[in-house]
């Protein structure tokens, strides 16, 4: 777990933030120390200085991002820290920025530190807290996401997981951003099997999510399931179920039946 002493042991002066003229690098250890000290009282607002410091203008990551990653991971892994979900979301946002940046020096440093933290990051997908597992969907690679698709039991995590699988399986000219065409086709087939099982055997609201997810692979799916979709969306007895389980990562409130219908 992170500690104030470990944070202090790093020579932060050798790193740069995204906007050093407005957010000097000393703000990073200051924010990390605050998160450590506040523990269970830590909240989303305590992470705001990190968002200001760890992203570069115009895209990419400043050098301090890779140095901060072990501390972010340790804090997010601490069950006693009150800002865990926000920290997991922050890690996901940083990794997305690194991925979009391409082959830059800071990107390489981030990927190396990401590999070192890999087991801890993957562990978020099986965390006891459903809110942490849901936020961690943004961190998972294809294999981990598919494995979780078979293991997850909480409906409020399974539903966004199905949507994430559909998005991830979407192909463009037979390939996606990563992986060979054959590998992508195998992944898409595995996702198709998961979604087919949900459409056959699962609860009504989960079936709506599976239709949306499957539309990423076959745009005519909603047309073929129009009647059962309308039955679910028009059933007043099912309406409250949407707000109980239709949670998405990075969205603070659940979707209502009307949100989903729109």
Notable characteristics:
mainly alpha, 16 helices, 0% strand, 62% helix
Give the total of beta strands: 0
The SSE string, one letter per element, is HHHHHHHHHHHHHHHH
The biggest beta sheet, please? Answer: none
Low-confidence stretches: 172-178
Percent helix among the residues? 55-70%
Beta-strand portion reads under 5%
Structural class: mainly alpha
Task: Compute the average pLDDT.
Answer: 90
- Give the total of domains: 2
Large-scale geometry: elongated
> Treating each run of at least 4 consecutive H or I residues as one helix, how many helices?
16
Calculate the terminal CA-CA distance, rounded to whole Å.
44 Å
**Gyration radius over CA:** 20 Å
Give a verbal description of the structure.
This protein is 62% helix and 0% strand. The N and C termini lie far apart (44 Å). The chain has 2 domains: 4-131; 145-261, no CATH class. Helix 5 packs parallel to helix 8. With 262 residues, it is mainly α.
Brief summary:
By secondary structure, the chain is mainly alpha-helical.
List the helices and strands and how they pair.
Blueprint: H1 4-8, H2 27-38, H3 48-53, H4 63-77, H5 84-101, H6 105-116, H7 118-123, H8 130-136, H9 142-151, H10 155-169, H11 181-201, H12 204-214, H13 221-224, H14 226-234, H15 239-245, H16 257-261
